[in-house]
Amino acid sequence: MNRSVRNAIIGFVCVLVGVVCAYAAFLYFSYISDIVVSGTAYGFRIGASKQEAYAAARPAFQGRQVYIMYPVDRDLFGPLVPIHFTEDEYAMLARRDFWEIYFVNGYWNSLSLTFEEGSLVKIYRHRQYFELP
């Protein structure tokens, strides 16, 4: 094998390895799995009432397309419907103790709020652009 062919193969392999490494780095650094049980995060405060959390959602998600499951069955599954967090839409979430908000951009991209006795006790943020095995 002459030197130029060998150099071309080595160059191709280096570029291929570089692309694979860059993609793996993107997946690693774009992954979020964050649980918050005290303080504030993503525009919400632990200990807030449902009404306070709902009011905080409007500025937190302004300009973004977000969805919730509504109505939900006993397993908390249902069709996704858009939500703009207006006063009229509060009834969709008021009786629930678990709010899962989905964002349009991304593969799996959501924010979950868990309430106990009417107060926010957990915020879970999840985003991944790949499917885990």
Furnish the topology, listing elements before pairings.
Layout: H1 3-30, E1 32-36, E2 40-41, E3 44-45, H2 50-60, E4 66-69, E5 80-83, H3 90-94, E6 98-103, E7 108-116, E8 119-128
Overview of this protein structure:
- The structure is a single chain.
- Helices cover 33% and strands 32% of the residues.
- It has 133 residues and is of the alpha+beta class.
- It has 2 domains: 1-30; 31-128, no CATH class.
- The strands form 2 sheets. The protein has a 6-stranded antiparallel sheet with strand order 1-8-7-6-4-5. Strands 2-3 form a two-stranded antiparallel sheet.
- A hairpin with a 4-residue loop joins strand 6 (98-103) and strand 7.
- It starts with a helix and ends in a 5-residue tail after the last strand.
- Number of beta strands: 8
Name the helix and strand elements from N-terminus to C-terminus, one letter apiece.
HEEEHEEHEEE
Number of domains: 2
**What's the mean pLDDT score?**
86
Report strand order across the widest sheet: 1-8-7-6-4-5
Number of helices: 3
- Tell me, briefly, the overall form: elongated
Structural category is alpha+beta
Rg result: 21 Å
Please report the distance between the alpha carbons of the first and last residues: 41 Å
Largest sheet properties? 6 strands, antiparallel
Helix content: 25-40%
Proportion of residues in extended strands = 25-35%
* Poorly predicted sequence stretches spanning 5 or more consecutive residues: none
